[in-house]
């Protein structure tokens, strides 16, 4: 396993609670849209066994052509040790990234794509939308639906409806409105439904989509292949 140590080159305050840490691209480091990585703080590998409290699984919110690796995360006033350390890091400080992989690249199968997310989960979809807007081959259209009770919506400059590019967006501030909208979207028998959020959020979305007749193979999750059956065979209802 290769560990890439790199430096923070910019910290962007996206909202009062959400920051994006822009990292230098180490030589030889590559990724694609929809990628996640293991993001670690100094000292995580100082002992014989990795200190897992200093490691988090994070989505990369940028594309390679942006020349920086973006890590977007919510840091609340009361937070974990990891987030407390992260909040105090500054430009020039070192962090590590390793085990980078994409479970949710943009599928180009001449279908409608629906991006369903909660809160900062939208960061996973930012690169997919950028990739689509740069090259819309073999994608009929994309619709993004995000729920965030804080109403401090992310990336509103990018997630702005552009009907001429067959890209539409919707932000809502409560789960009831959100699930009402998901139910409408699920009427698309051939659509591809990407879902990003907490495990509870995934289970709720999958239960609704499956109840509306959406097949498991139409649902894309940011999970490793071996984890998918745990979610896609769920019988949980909402």
Automatic annotation (TrEMBL):
> Any idea which UniProt keywords this protein has?
Oxidoreductase
Report whether Oxidoreductase shows up as a keyword of the record. yes
Which Enzyme Commission number(s) are on file for it?
1.18.1.2
Main EC class of this protein?
oxidoreductase
Span of the signal peptide: none
Q: Does the keyword Nucleotide-binding apply?
A: no
Q: Give the GO molecular function terms.
A: ferredoxin-NADP+ reductase activity
| Origin superkingdom | Bacteria
Q: What's the protein name?
A: Ferredoxin--NADP+ reductase
């Amino acid at each position: 396993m290769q560990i890439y140590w790199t430096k923070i080159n910019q910290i962007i305050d996206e909202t009062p609670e959400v920051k994006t840490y822009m990292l230098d691209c180490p030589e030889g480091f590559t990724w694609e849209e929809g990628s996640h990585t293991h993001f670690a703080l100094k000292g995580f590998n100082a002992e014989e066994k990795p200190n897992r409290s200093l490691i988090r699984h994070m989505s990369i919110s940028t594309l390679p052509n942006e020349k920086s690796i973006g890590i977007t995360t919510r840091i609340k006033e009361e937070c974990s040790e990891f987030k407390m350390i992260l909040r105090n890091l500054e430009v020039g400080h070192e962090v590590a990234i390793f085990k980078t992989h994409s479970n949710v690249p943009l599928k180009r199968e001449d279908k409608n794509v629906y991006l369903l997310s909660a809160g900062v989960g939208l960061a996973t979809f930012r690169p997919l939308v950028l990739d689509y807007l740069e090259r819309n081959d073999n994608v009929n259209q994309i619709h993004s639906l995000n729920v965030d009770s804080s109403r401090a919506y992310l990336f509103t400059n990018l997630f702005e409806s552009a009907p001429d590019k067959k890209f539409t967006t919707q932000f809502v501030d409560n789960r009831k409105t959100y699930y009402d909208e998901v139910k409408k979207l699920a009427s698309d028998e051939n659509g591809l439904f990407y879902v990003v959020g907490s495990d509870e959020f995934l289970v709720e979305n999958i239960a609704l989509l499956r109840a509306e007749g959406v097949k498991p193979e139409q649902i894309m999750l940011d999970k490793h292949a071996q984890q998918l059956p745990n979610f896609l065979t769920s019988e949980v209802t909402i």
